[in-house]
Amino acid sequence: MAKKKIAKNTEEFDRRFDEGEDIHDLIDMSKARIIRHGKKVRITLDVAEELVNEIDRIRESIGVDRGALIKIWLHERVKQEKVTTV
Predict the structure, then answer these.
(1) How confident is the prediction for the chain on average, in pLDDT?
(2) 59 pLDDT above the threshold of 90
(3) How many CA atoms lie within 13 A of 25 on its CB side?
(4) ∠ CA 23-26-29 to the nearest 5 degrees?
(5) Is the per-residue pLDDT at 1 higher than 80?
(6) Cβ pair 59, 66 in contact under 8 A
(7) Which helix (H) or strand (E) holds 13?
(8) What is the mean pLDDT of residues 64-68?
(9) What pTM did the predictor assign?
(10) Could you give phi then psi for residue 52, rounded to 5 degrees?
(11) How far apart are CA 71 and CA 54, in angstroms?
């Protein structure tokens, strides 16, 4: 079996992945690492129904679930706050 040609750039790599090509031979798994963010803690929030509806409209348009979107937004905001308070 012939070895696959390495992608010339990220755009080519992404295109080949998006087209369903098996890209396992193109990835150096020896450099892969697992990031563990620590113990998960459950929180409960009461928010207005209209805000939840707006969040759902956004998440549907980008194709992620509500919890994932909120986690991303929280993470981005915490990073932003760290930069501005230092």
Answers:
(1) 87
(2) yes
(3) 10
(4) 100
(5) no
(6) yes
(7) helix 10-18
(8) 93
(9) 0.55
(10) -60, -40
(11) 16
Q: What integer pLDDT is reported at residue 70 of this predicted model?
A: 95
> Which domains are present in the chain?
1-33 (no CATH), 36-86 (1.10.1220.10)
Type of residue numbered 44: T
DSSP secondary structure string for all residues of 17-81: HHTT---GGGS-GGG-----------------HHHHHHHHHHHHHHT--HHHHHHHHHHHHHHHH
Residue 3 has pLDDT above 70, yes or no: no
Q: Closest Cα to residue 6, out of 21, 32, 30?
A: 21
Polymer length of the chain = 86
Placement of tokens 């080519």 in the chain: 12
CA 22 to chain centroid, in Å, comes to 21
